[in-house]
Amino acid sequence: MLLMPDGQGQPTAIHRSDYQPPAWWIDTVELTFDLDPAKTRVLNKMRLRRNPEVAAQALRLDGEELNLSRVLVNGAGTSFKMDGSQLVLENLPEGPEPFDLEIFTTCAPDKNTQLMGLYVSQGTFFTQCEAEGFRRITYFLDRPDVMASYTVTLRADKASYPVLLSNGNLVEQGDLDAGRHFAKWHDPHKKPCYLFALVAGKLVARQQRILSRSGTEHLLEVYVRPGDLGKTEHAMNSLMASVAWDEARFGLPLDLERFMIVATSDFNMGAMENKGLNIFNTKYVLASEATATDTDFANIEAVVGHEYFHNWTGNRITCRDWFQLSLKEGLTVFRDQEFSMDMAGNPSARAVKRIEDVRVLRSAQFPEDAGPMAHPVRPDSYIEINNFYTVTIYEKGAEVVRMMHHLVGRDGFAQGMKLYFARHDGQAVTCDDFAQAIADANPGSALALQLEPFKRWYNQAGTPRVQASGLYDAETHRYTLTLRQSCPATPGQPHKEPFVIPVELGLLNHEGQALALQLEGEQTANGNSRTLVLDGAEQQWTFINVAQAPVPSLLRGFSAPVVLEVDYSDAELLTLLAHDSDAFNRWEAGQRLLLRRALQAITAPDDSQDASILDESLLQALGQVLRDPQLDAAFKELVLTLPSETYIAEQLEVVNPQRIHAVREAMRLQLALALHTDWQATYEAHQASGAYRPDAASAGRRALAGLALTMLCLGAQHGGDSIWPGKTLQRFKDAGNMTDRFNALAALVGCGHALAAPALERFHSWFKDDPLVLDKWFALQAGASDRAGHVLPLVKQLMAHPDFTIKNPNRARSLIFSYCNANPGAFHRADAAGYVFWSERVLELDAINPQVAARLARALDRWKKLAEPWRSSAREAIARVAARPDLSNDVREVITRALADE
Ligand code: TRP
Ligand code: ZN
């Protein structure tokens, strides 16, 4: 995907400040496809007109890897030229009248390994057009602010491609000669070309008719390969729930007669929100209790929701340009997170979902925000837009929306959304437009009063740090809280202005009871929890009538995406862990204690104390959590799970990945041994009975039982007893669902027991025909805790396994990414062999699929933090990749940024 067609010169950066409205509008598009894997013919007939608001200029159409055969203007031949990969037309009709432009091209779907544009997967045609894939199908103004009305005719061999789908409504279908047939689709909504889609192949559908609140009927369909129909029930249920939820919570109904989801096993990302024809990675559609875990079920619900919610936030109102990507992604992630929480139900289950989301943010987005690829939620420039589908755009973007939600309240936010649609339905807009609508609907709110400074969240990269310190005056019963903020420099942004940071807080006494809150100047106390808005570098608040020195519970529910630094004593953290009414902060207190112990051990002069990193009081507190009958299983599982190695690494200036791994493993072993009796009781108490259901409560019980089993195996392996490994193997064999079966297998693999090998073999033979389960089999082995460097040789061996193929992104991710991106203890080898493996795979993948290669390239983003010898060998590996002259723009951008000295 070189910008320069001849591969020469430097790729050019695109800047947000260079935005110009399009010089031409495309009102209608009629596309006719003659589908053939080797050579598909595309006739593109457009109705164009000049944009009267922009100075007259040539029409420049984007195209990529197309064979052009004919160009007609109003039915007659015309002159044109090529400028790089753009088709340039200079002699077009003057004046404001619309005219027809017809372009004939061909492309080769079966040679398309990038999976962008039109490609073939297992004999079926699929498209992927976001962000700039439509230009690989035909010449077009491939930018989201050009919205057109589409009519699409598909023609193909009827036996090989019985199902022909595109966006909108089916208006006509029938047979053609020579065994071919056709289908004609019309999309009643104008859309940008990145939302175009077609699918053609041998597929079957689960169908469901539904009635909306207003009484209109809709047809929902989930298309899969013939053998997979039995695995579509959960996706369909999730889709029905999504439709109902968006109508109930935001008053946003389904605006189409027909809504289709199609699954493919070759897909670069999770799923795509094409209008009325969502295309999904099979991973986020197919599920049965025998083949999918609780996590898979939850992810399917979230992704089905996410793509469906895009129908309004993304499709009805789209992005003006790709710098505004978070306008749709941040908002839609926020919406899917809220959907999952509402589906989970009770406050405790909501908190579990919130903790899970924050864990992702901290272990993936915080490192991104501190590394060479750091960028604002609304970036200022990029080389390859595909590199900016990031956790910052998605997850941090969702946090920005969540803060707005917090500042205006739930009803205020709903009003804001209403105004957003009233103003902008059918338009391509900016993040400013969204923030303005939310603020304007809530005059007088903290958001409206601070809108300009609030929007620094869109413009400034980096994770802000908030330092909190409290001072209690026992004589006056006053408690003064000081909050200070700062933000580290990020590439191109050495200095930051203060952010507007909502800090929700409560105060506890030392017995853990909530104290009434009364700020200086207030007549009476008012509630036990409230939100302070930090908008300067440093601010103070004084609470009065505080009877005793309080323990502050700060940033409840993680009310802002910041690093909060507080000088808690261990005793204060234990109080919060045992009593905080805010479930998030209860979990957080436990994590702070565990992190504190880990950091003490990592920075200790030697490893002689590694067997006793956790002290008696902390172990007791954790045992109490495990035994507490009031707490949900899912919550317990989160409390008892140690901070990830990546998250621990982020706390350190200089990172020795092996030391982090060793300390974390030692802590796990200590937890396993010290709480042995509790783990045993926990495991016994959480045996599910009755039919499998993937709801949050039963999933939580299975997760906790799984953690208990892992701990029992770990402890047994250390103590040399074989009772628990034996029981685990039995569990593995008898399990009634994939969650229990996989957890048992993972427990055996995790402790390195001899029973793991035969279990893995058996698992493979059971599921050898199910690609998604095979992905789990590869991922488990590549992600296993490293023992004496065993993982890399195993990964190399698995690369040669008959079931491995690097061409399928899911399979590549399951083996290569699980090792390079998700297994730091095994990847960061002192002999640099992990890095050599990484550089080879980046190059190998880049020749096939640059988008996937660039994601792998990011595994060494944080190399500058590494201690020697890792740092030097990582730099060498990156430099080896950089030295290749033929890199894609995708990988080139990532590698160049990694090597830049900022
Ligand atoms: N817009 C999609 C989503 O977030 C994701 C997406 C962007 C994508 N680019 C893609 C999916 C390329 C597949 C391939 O829902
Ligand atoms: Zn999305």
Can you offer a commentary on this structure?
The protein is of the alpha+beta class and 902 residues long. The chain folds into 4 domains: 14-316, tricorn interacting facor f3 domain (Immunoglobulin-like), CATH 2.60.40; 319-459, Orthogonal Bundle (Neutral Protease, domain 2), CATH 1.10.390.10; 465-567, Aminopeptidase N, middle-beta domain (Immunoglobulin-like), CATH 2.60.40; 768-902, Peptidase M1, alanyl aminopeptidase, C-terminal domain (Zincin-like fold, Alpha Horseshoe). It contains 28 helices and 32 strands. The strands form 8 sheets. Strands 2, 3, 5, 6, 9, 12, 14, 15 and 16 form a 9-stranded mixed beta sheet that branches. Strands 18-19-20-22-21 form a 5-stranded mixed beta sheet, covered by helices on one side. The structure holds tryptophan (TRP) and zinc ion. Zinc ion binds at residues 306, 310, 329, 332.
Please give a handful of descriptors for the protein shown.
902 residues; alpha+beta; Immunoglobulin-like; Neutral Protease, domain 2; 9-stranded mixed beta sheet; 5-stranded mixed beta sheet; 28 helices; disordered N terminus; binds tryptophan; binds zinc ion; Aminopeptidase N; alanyl aminopeptidase activity; Aminopeptidase_N-like_N; metalloprotease; PepN_Ig-like_sf
